[in-house]
Design goal:
This protein has 25 helices and 27 strands. The chain is α+β, with helices and mostly antiparallel strands. A hairpin with a 2-residue loop joins strand 14 and strand 15.
């Protein structure tokens, strides 16, 4: 029997090649799109999941109520780890991890920079990253211990065994390789190429015991039988014992496996995070696959009259309904298997471009047994879903009416087939609306005034001899004509590295804990960056040596501080007094989708990490940078010269929205293509079924246009119904998405009109092709047997 079913299924596929191709194409595109999204979702769900004993590892977070709102953040004081280790017996180990910095590695004539983190010696025991060489318990015990990744070891030592090799870091100290790590997966929070001991950081004077300096990440590993709830309750009051300035600040633990997907807090409570995007694309994957399955259902049921006799004969000779259902489901699973083969080819071809788009290294796991099991379940489930309605529909035919020839497919006002078409296009129109609004929102943010001039502005991170030779470099670069201005700052202008609620000014309420961002700058910050002065002047240490203790406020800071006449006012910060010499317009440092935060730009008494250079527009950037590079290499010969364009770095603020917009556009197009394939097949079949009617109408004088309208109008009605359903759904979805943006575009009527017209236009083009073809056919061909 099964052999007979397969034979009949194959004959049906082969006999109706055009319908089979449409079915397989639509199903394969839907399956391929769903697989790509599922691969990405799998990668996201695996983020930070690869650590041994991950269920016992926690991030340490802070929670503090400021001005009626509870804020949470996960940077901690450097001293917190040792306090937790000493005070709580439930804790097995703690470790600190600082932000990765670029470090110069010198080996003979070889110079390499690599991202390096300082960690406690317990780090490798807590996270148990795969160690190819070395003892994880002792690898970071020494002051000059060095643990490198496999890739960095290859770059430094080639094929030689790196263990015990000596390499100089930052031209200061010799380090010995005590461990080699296997390459880390990309779906991990750690982005280092090398680890040094925290003891070295302490030796260099970069450790401190100040509880107000939240600048590092702290991790805790609990003992096997320790109660998390009990530990959570105890650690809340940690700061009451140690932090004299903010004893009411709470400390809490948060699972390291949840931070990436769920670590967004609002008013002290977990409020989602990246998991919302994962769920959204999971829904999109499901709907795209559903749209493809709807195609299959519609095309299969559209051919009901052609298969009615087969069903009637099988029932007459004794076939039961369940055996017919099994036959038709078998056919759909066979179709699904064929579509899966095509889908795999599509996925393999699309993966390089898709990986570039989502910034991942996704791949089909051919050697994984779970992959094959999952693929089989996916294919069978798709086949059963696609074939369920056709199987139930076709097996319900009554043999008497079929054999008498009185069976006709339903042509009611509302039929399951029409409902399915409406469902397809409803989803497509919602995606079109979402795509337009996402792109509008991104464009709106991109067009927002930054408050400074990004053009021809580059920056380089200070390293090596740049610190001691800065003044010489500055004079030579200015004299070269390559730049019009230069300044150094504590951070890039596109990033906020420091903030505080401990800044004081005249009239400040002692309970006011509102945060002010902090930037330190040298001479000519306003000129170099292109800030817009509202009052006062730029830093000028040559004319005003006291500018080392001066500050420039942005408008939001002036408003926050309530300074009616800000110039000359004294601001206290970091144990120093700063005199306000200028006010600049607000400029975007953080998110272009959020309000600008208050900022104080302190003078040259601060700390510096970045050199900013305004390139001379009279020359090409290539010529300017060539001159600049020569000067930097002259005064900092051990380090390669690296620079970044400020406008390019600023553009990265839109990466997530660009990615979301591109993916929404891509999947909207795929949904439309799949829907149109089904519409094309339905139109073709409807034209074939009504070919004699068309012939009669033509004989009676009907024009090509009237026949085309006759065949198209039913489909047009379905698209219009889809639009009526999709418009409020699209509005609701995008209203909820936009509400998280303080700066957002209004949802305008023309977006819905454009989505509706686009859908109608595409549908009409699809249907009209078949309608015109039928309308132009010779009526003699269809009526010669009448």
């Amino acid at each position: 029997m099964i052999k007979n079913y397969l034979l009949v299924a194959w004959r049906n596929l082969w006999r109706k090649k055009s319908f089979s191709i449409l079915n397989i194409t639509g199903l394969s595109i839907g399956m391929a799109a769903a697989v790509l999204i599922l691969l990405w979702i799998q990668s996201e769900m695996r983020y930070d999941q690869g650590y041994a004993n991950k269920e016992r590892i926690y991030d340490v977070w802070n929670r503090f109520k400021k001005n009626g709102e509870i804020n949470c953040w996960r940077t901690t004081p450097k001293v917190m780890a040792s306090a937790i280790q000493a005070d709580y017996p439930e804790v097995e180990q703690t470790t600190r991890v600082n932000y990765p910095t670029s470090v110069l590695f010198s080996l003979g004539d070889k110079r390499i920079t690599a991202r390096t983190c300082a960690v406690d010696s317990t780090f490798l025991n807590i996270f148990e990253l795969p160690l190819l060489e070395g003892n994880r318990a002792k690898a970071l015990d020494g002051l000059y211990s060095l643990v490198v990744t496999q890739d960095l070891a290859k770059r430094l030592f080639g094929d030689e065994n790196p263990m015990g090799k000596v390499v100089k870091l930052n031209n200061e100290h010799n380090f010995t390789v005590t461990g080699v790590l296997k390459e880390k997966p990309r779906n991990s929070r750690f982005n280092f190429e090398c680890l040094v001991s925290w003891a070295y950081l302490r030796f260099m004077g970069e450790d401190d015991s100040f509880w107000g300096n939240n600048s590092t990440s702290t991790y805790v590993k609990l003992k096997k039988n320790a109660s998390f709830d009990a530990m959570q309750a105890k650690i809340l009051t940690l700061r009451k014992k140690y932090d004299k300035e903010d004893p009411d600040m709470e400390t809490f633990l948060y699972p390291v496996t949840r931070t990436y997907l769920h670590g967004r807090f609002e008013n002290g409570k977990e409020a989602g995070g990246r998991i919302e995007i994962v769920r959204l694309f999971g829904i999109i994957a499901g709907f795209i696959l559903l749209v493809a399955c709807i195609n299959f259902m519609n095309l299969s049921t559209a051919r009901s009259e052609k298969r009615a006799k087969e069903v009637g004969i099988r029932k007459v000779v004794g076939a039961r309904r369940r055996s017919l259902i099994a036959q038709f489901l078998g056919e759909s699973v066979l179709m699904s298997l064929l579509a899966a083969v095509v889908a795999v080819l599509i996925v393999q071809l699309a993966l390089p471009a898709f990986n570039k788009l989502v910034d991942r290294q996704l791949a089909l796991e051919w050697n994984n047994g779970k992959f094959w099991l999952g693929a089989l379940v996916f294919v069978i489930a798709t086949g059963l879903l696609a074939g369920s309605y056709p199987a139930l529909f076709l097996s319900s035919f009554k043999p008497v009416s079929v054999m008498k020839g009185t069976f006709k497919a339903a042509n009611a006002l509302i039929t399951p087939r029409k409902v399915l078409v409406i469902g397809q296009f409803t989803f497509a129109i919602v995606l079109i609306i979402a795509t337009i609004i996402v792109r509008q929102q991104m464009y709106n943010a991109q067009q927002r005034q930054t408050g400074y001039d990004k053009g021809n502005l580059i920056y380089t991170f200070m390293e090596g001899d740049m610190y001691k030779n800065y003044e010489v470099i500055k004079q030579e670069v200015l004299s070269s004509g390559a730049v019009t201005s230069i300044t150094k700052t504590s951070a890039p202008i596109t990033e906020s590295w420091s903030n505080t609620w401990g800044m004081y000014w005249n009239g400040k309420d002692p309970d006011d804990k509102r945060v002010v961002n902090r930037l330190c700058a040298d001479n000519a910050i306003v000129k170099t960056i292109g800030l817009q002065l509202v009052q006062g002047r730029d830093f000028d240490l040559t004319t005003y040596p006291t500018d080392s203790n001066a500050t420039i406020l942005n408008e939001s800071a002036v408003k926050l501080m309530g300074l009616k006449d800000p110039l000359g006012q004294i601001i206290k910060d970091m144990g120093e007094e700063f005199k306000v010499i200028g006010v600049v317009k607000d400029f975007i440092v953080e998110s272009p989708y959020q309000p600008v935060n208050p900022m104080a730009i302190h003078g040259a008494k601060g700390y510096f990490n970045v050199i900013n250079l305004k390139l001379n527009p009279a020359h090409t950037n290539t010529a300017n940078i060539s001159k600049i590079e020569a000067i930097f290499k002259k005064h900092n010969p051990e380090y390669p010269y690296n620079y970044r364009f400020t406008d390019e770095e600023y553009s990265h603020k839109f990466d997530n929205e660009k990615r979301t917009g591109t993916l929404a556009t891509l999947f909207a197009l795929l949904t439309i293509v799949i829907s149109c394939l089904g519409l094309f097949g339905l139109a073709s079949y409807m034209a074939e079924n009504r070919i004699k009617e068309i012939g009669v109408r033509k004989v009676l004088g009907a024009s090509v246009g009237s026949i085309t309208r006759l065949l198209s109008v039913d489909f047009l009605k379905l698209i219009l119904v889809s639009f009526v359903i999709a418009a409020p759904l699209g509005y609701w979805a995008m209203h909820n998405w936009l509400k998280d943006f303080p700066y957002r575009v209004p949802i305008q009527w023309w977006v819905f009109a454009a989505a509706g017209l686009l859908s109608v236009g595409i549908a009409l083009l699809t249907v009209s092709f078949q309608a015109l073809r039928a309308a132009r056919s010779n009526p003699m061909n269809s009526l010669r047997t009448e």
